[in-house]
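Single-chain item
Fold in token form
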Amino acid sequence: MLKRYDLQDGAIVSSENDSSRILVFISPEKEEINFLTNRFHLDEHTLYSALDLDELSRLEFEEDHFCVIFKRPRNYSSEEQFLFKVSSFGVFVFKDCMIILISEDLPLFDGKQNYKVNSMVEVMLKIFYRSIAHFLQHLKVINMVSDEIEQKVNTSMENKYLINMFTLEKSLVYYLNAINSNAMVIEKIRNSAARIGLSQENVELLDDIMIENNQCLKQTEIYSNIISSLMDARASIVNNNLNSLMKTLNILTIAIMVPTFVVSAFSMNVSIPLQKSPFAFIIVMGLSAAALFASLVFFRYKRW
């Protein structure tokens, strides 16, 4: 799938012209890969690396362009069961055009644009900034989901909520790896500013992006440490809830067994006291009630 964009008055707008300067290939097929390798002389290995979900972020220089593989969150689906994943995308920057390869249809140029975009390098920086913002949005969602699951863990004995917490912890590990990988690429771009052709304004913007990414990394580390440190405590809460329930069931069982023993004793097919008394039933029920009351008083005294 191919989408075309162009620069118009400092903004990125959708275009249908064949001469569009920004080409976005979404999950490209074999024919499109061949077109890119023949028309733009892109390395086929690098093209497939840009679509590899497990590929680390990196920067590569070629004769007439440079390539950046960057990480960003994938679109979340309810079928993932609270597992947030990351994906890779490749940005191939030429002097007058740009090619973007991505494995799924993600919003690359949405959100508020706080500055004008006049070059391909600035388009690339905008994509990086939007990717970091996407990570921050997902972290907010993960934090809210974590709080909701925590409340359910405190009152439930089911394992599924603990499994959900473990899944969130696993997601944060993926995010930490991806954000840290992006940080190294951003730093490498900063060190290669002259070779890439970054202006002073571009360098300042890149510094802002680096700060945002570092803040995102710290926030991810905090969330990951919190969830990791509380997993054992929440497992203990589940065990305590189970112990409390078993304790309550045992008390009820014992409380029922005591009057049952009294009634059973007067139900034997042998000669027993009160056998011919017209008040035998009332007396037996009274003894059962007294035994039950004595059991409850004993439990209360022991604070069980």
About this structure: The radius of gyration is 33 Å. The chain is about 60% helix and 15% strand. Strands lie at 2-8, 11-15, 22-26, 58-61, 66-73, 86-93, 98-102.
